[in-house]
Amino acid sequence: MSAMDVEDFIQQNRALADQVETHRGYWESEKHWDARREFILRNISDFQVEQLDPLLSLSMVWANNVFLGCRYSTELLEKVKEMAEGIVVEDAPVFKTRDEIMKKQQVHVKHTHTHARAHTHTHCAEILTQHVEGNIPNVFLSLPSQGR
């Protein structure tokens, strides 16, 4: 059901659409509500109109996952994603788990460390080359003796 299909459905089923509209949370933006309403309308035929609580709960799970990044069990997320198939949410936020962030930081630290070591080795090689060529006095390359 596209956005146009949702509007057509609402026009043809005004009483049902009005009932669904009563379930909008005051905190929901237009974008959030439009997507959640579409979820409800796409799946309402699978539920008895008098008992919409399970559908409303599933719609909140889906919306919370999409808009807020809330996490739920794999089985529940698979169910709501299947129910929401075809719903397009433009500019939906992208959330990363703590594990994804930590992995990225570890890769960044490893890359930075490797880059720093490579830079140090290159710098040392340049100094040694300059010393061999006689451009740097021995005082910069002397190591402290163990006896001192």
TrEMBL record:
InterPro entries cross-referenced by the UniProt entry: XTBD
Q: Which family does it belong to?
A: Belongs to the CARF family.
Q: Where is the XRN2-binding (XTBD) domain?
A: 20-110
User: Which species does the entry assign this protein to?
Assistant: Labrus bergylta (ballan wrasse)
Q: Kindly give the Pfam families that the UniProt entry links to this protein.
A: XTBD (PF11952)
Family annotation (PROSITE patterns):
XTBD
Q: What is this protein called?
A: CDKN2A interacting protein N-terminal like
Q: Which PANTHER family match?
A: PARTNER OF XRN-2 PROTEIN 1
